[in-house]
Fold these 3 entries.
Entry 1:
Amino acid sequence: EIVLTQSPATLSLSPGERASLSCWASQSVDYYLSWYQQKPGQAPRLLIYDASNRAAGIPARFSASGSGTDFTLTISSLEPEDFAVYYCQQRRNWPLTFGGGTKVEIK
Amino acid sequence: EVQLLESGGDLVQPGGSLRLSCSASGFTFSRYAMNWFRQAPGKGLEWVSSLCDRGVSTYYADPVKGRFTITRDNSKNTLYLQMTTLRAEDTAVYYCAKDLLIYGSGTPWYFDLWGRGTLVTVSS
């Protein structure tokens, strides 16, 4: 099983600041990685797939990069609605796995 | 409107069974792989099971293998998850989700449409 480790667990930032979230894989997932945003009481929302492709309707302030075992999600300037939990997910191998999540909270 | 709507969640005793349903609308259900996920209270996301467009290929997470069965009825635009021998650790909100791309047209197993979830509580 591919284990995804996200860092940090919590990120405390102010609106307008830049957020960088990391996701490390226990073995290479090539570029088969996605990012999701989840707000309390809501279902996850796909942000990024194939490591760097924004899903439909996702604002340009969300960008992502990486390949192999090291991935990053960047939010260039935090908007109030961006404070949420973010998960990475790999589809390189079965079972599909998620990281433990990074909570982006208001400082 | 493009949406998924789960139903069937309930309070069930350990060892019991439950069937979840996921009704799809607003897209051509039969062309997409479909999936189940769960999220225990206060915890992260966990993949449970996936099913290709025609229902031929199925995939299960180890914790549910042999106890859960994923199926679909493309004539009813509905996905199912039959859960048996339920355990306390199966307690979670269960979500169904649609694959991003039409099956066979690109990289599967990314999920762009999710339902609101249905709560399954396993307790005596």
Entry 2:
Amino acid sequence: QLQLQESGPGLVRPSETLSLTCIVSGGSISSAVYYWAWIRQPPGQGLEWIGSISYSGFTYHNPSLKSRLTISVDTSKNQFSLKLSSVTAADTAVYYCARPMEFGEFPFDFWGQGALVSVSS
Amino acid sequence: EIVMTQSPATLSVSPGERATLSCRASQSVSNNLAWYQQKPGQAPRLLIYGASTRATGIPARFSGSGSGTEFTLTITSLQSEDFAVYYCQQYNNWPPLYTFGQGTKLEIK
């Protein structure tokens, strides 16, 4: 059974860079063409798609975050990562990694448990 | 960006009864619409995709309908474990620009 697990610091200072990694187990990140995704949820609020990456490193970003966002993949470690620069309190959220059902226009059927990241001095 | 609007924000229903949740898209998303259930402290769980197809393991009391801009999630014979927050999501764009509704909280009446 595929499992995704987010890892990274739970506290980031304002103006610094938020870094998270999603470790994929129970399947190879490069076994098929999926666009692995990052999604976030501020406390008490709804869900926001951040961006997606293929195992070959091709990325799509939410335009609202694109200037601050880097998504990368490491197939040797079966993981992908998120970096969000110049964070503010508005970036405080639970960050999820997720995988869509198939390549193309499909929703997400596998999710990590989520990682709460707080932005505070 | 396609804006998804869910109504109502909160729905109070008694166990055993039916709940009807609505989702509207600011422009047509064809049938590229999914519904998720989220319980406190948990990740969202995919319930419905393609507007009306139940995901693996989802009970038959969950059903979805609609196309274009108007969608409905219906839950019949509400069970205690069904009280949660429900989100709709459109995935009609490629390259992707996925957007979610703001959620409907289904609470026990």
Entry 3:
Amino acid sequence: DTVLTQSPALAVSPGERVSISCRASEGVNSYMHWYQQKPGQQPKLLIYKASNLASGVPARFSGSGSGTDFTLTIDPVEADDTATYFCQQSWNDPWTFGGGTKLELK
Amino acid sequence: EVQLQQSGAELVKPGASVKLSCKTSGYTFSNYYMSWLKQMPGQNIEWIGNIYGGNGGTGYNQKFKGKATLTVDKSSSTAYMDLSSLTSEDSAVYFCARREYRYNYFDYWGQGVMVTVSS
């Protein structure tokens, strides 16, 4: 299976820029997607196919990358962005998720 | 508005089976795939499989073959997942999520249902 590796946690101050990385164990083309999950809630789609903003998602969120290295950027970070962020690949079967990056605000 | 409404929490005994439901509204059920996903407490998300609302065609993660069975009822726009021979490793939150067919991401999610396997 394709393993997606994310940093476990990040802490930033409101107004700053944060980049969350996701590295795949094998190439996934641009078939990488990002989700935000708050405690006790379902995940919410943020970015699809590496760099496309999902409907209704603020332009503060952006995505980049291809192949094995991908980044989700939030700029500027707001208090409401406290959550866990997951990447998901859909190029290789089975589709897999990263372990999640917990974003905390200072 | 697209909505996926899942059934309530389940407490089941080891070795038993459970059937989870996901009732949809706000879109044409038969035009989309529905996926099911598993999230154990504090852990990452696993994709279980897909089912096409139009004809019930399925695709499974090999890990979950024999454990999960996906079905649909087009008349009520509802997707179902049967989980069999339950063990403590099946205790988790299970989500249904609508799958976008071109790039295979999940654009709408149910609220999730907690399944607890305990004697």
